[in-house]
Amino acid sequence: MKSKFIVLAIVLFLIGQVEMSAQESTSNNANKIIVGGWIDGQYRLNINDEANGSFQVRRARLDVKGNLSKQVDFRLQADMSSAPKLIDAYVRMRFNKAIALQMGQFKIPFSLENILSPLDLELTDNAQVISALSGYKDVTGIASYANGRDIGLMLSGTLFSDEIKGVETSIVKYEIGLFGGGGINVAPTRWGKDLSGRLSITPYVQHLTLSASVYWGNYILPNATTAGETKGERKRYAVGAQYADGRIMLRGEYLWGRTGLDLLDEITNSYFLDNLESQGCYITLSRWFDMEKTTDGQFVPKIRPILRWDYYARDAADGTSKTYYWAGVECWPQKCLRLQLAYRIHQDELTSNFDHCLTAMTTVKF
Q1: Residue 238 CA to chain centroid, in angstroms?
Q2: What H or E segment, with its residue span, contains residue 315?
Q3: Number of neighbours of residue 215 by Cβ within 10 angstroms
Q4: Which of 132, 199, 295, 333 would you call most buried, defined as having the most Cβ atoms within 10 angstroms of its Cβ?
Q5: What count of other Cβ atoms lies within 10 Å of the Cβ of residue 55?
Q6: Exposure of 183 by Cβ count < 10 A (0-12 exposed, 13-18 middle, 19+ buried)?
Q7: Looking at the domain assignment, is residue 269 inside a domain?
Q8: CB of 46 within 8 A of CB of 59?
Q9: Beta strand pairing status for 354-365 and 337-347?
Q10: Where are the beta strands (DSSP E) in 53-126?
């Protein structure tokens, strides 16, 4: 509990320092500091069970970021929704377009959807396989609610650029880093040298991105195994593509992973190491529409319908899986206000019963 108050005190102190710095250097873009954040209020209802309806403040983010110089920027983001905790805390040094070095706590370079901010995510929830294999609610049970982040060191950059239809476009982007493997606010263990990387290519088709990602690592098992093993592996792979031209967005990904787990032998009452193979894929489609005529230099209220097909098999070997069908709508009536409504349906493979879930979320930016 004491550490949570320390985090809050640090954030409040930095805000005070940022405001002073901003007042002293408002005309210096190389030393520009931005303070902002947002609040998500969510209501979720399982239509099959009205008693399951619940309201929560899902996020309450405070975000401080800026440029310390032309080559150095930083970000400090905290969430206050349940208890104060650091989300992002990193410094990045940009040597040139090809090389940037980032240190601290930030999103791991894995998959297309993981890198999206909740403010940019089309629906109220990530795809199932993203949550399970990208560090949200990991199948290992560790790093839960890590928001796809970890503590580490990463190199990134753009290797090639070219002109596509008169627009200078990055052709190849890379990100590769070493991470602790324990999620946010967790000191790396002695096994904490996980490798994660993503390669993104724009194949001379404007607005199209092809992506491939890997995650190789391991983690300390929570129980002793009969084989004397102390660690389980985590190997994950992702391939995907996205087309986004500012109006139409189409994104799809396939993820596969092998995870070493401690399983209990009920006969011997001892644990043994077994590898769980998981896989999943999703396709998301959306289209923005203006709610009023465009006014130069002014915010234009927008709305978009969204569809998603979402498949996930936690254990590919046993043949059980979940397929979610999503339909939703996102609306920005004001620059500082977002409204979301999402409906999800899936059929239980064992009982053939349909499960219905309705989620409404309101976001206020500041």
Answers
A1: 14
A2: none
A3: 26
A4: 132
A5: 11
A6: buried
A7: yes
A8: no
A9: antiparallel
A10: 54-67, 72-79, 85-94, 100-107
Q: Which residue has the tokens 């209220």?
A: 301
Instruction: Count how many domains the chain has.
Output: 1
Structure tokens at 366: 């500041």
| Residue bearing tokens 């004001």 | 334
26 in Cβ contact with 18 (< 8 Å): no
Burial class (CB in 10 A: 0-12, 13-18, 19+), 172: middle
Give the model confidence (pLDDT) of 180-194 as tens digits: 888 888 877 666 689
* Structure token digits, residue 135: 């560090």
Q: Could you give the C-alpha distances from 320 to 32, 130, 269, in angstroms and in order? A: 51, 18, 26
The single residue listed with the structure tokens 């529409």 is 289
pTM: 0.86
Instruction: Specify if 232 maps to a domain.
Output: yes
Give the C-alpha separation, 202 to 214, whole Å.
Answer: 19
| Alpha helices for 112-237 (secondary structure H) | 128-133
Could you read off the pLDDT of 24-71 as tens digits, one per residue? 444 455 678 999 999 999 999 988 766 678 899 999 999 999 999 999
Q: What angle do CA 126, 129, 133 make, to 5 degrees?
A: 105
Provide the domain limits for residue 244.
Answer: 95-365
Tell me how long the chain is: 366
Average pLDDT over residues 203-230: 83
Tokens in use for 273? 């190491």
CATH code of 356's domain: 2.40.160.10
Q: In a 3-state reduction of DSSP, which class is residue 14?
A: helix
Q: Report whether 283 contacts 253 (CB < 8 A).
A: no
User: What whole-number distance in Å separates Cα of residue 171 and Cα of residue 164?
Assistant: 10
Q: Read off the tokens for 106.
A: 């930030």
For 125, phi and psi rounded to 5 degrees? -135, 150
Is the residue at 352 inside a domain?
A: yes
322 belongs to a structural domain = yes
- Give the residue carrying structure tokens 């930016």: 365
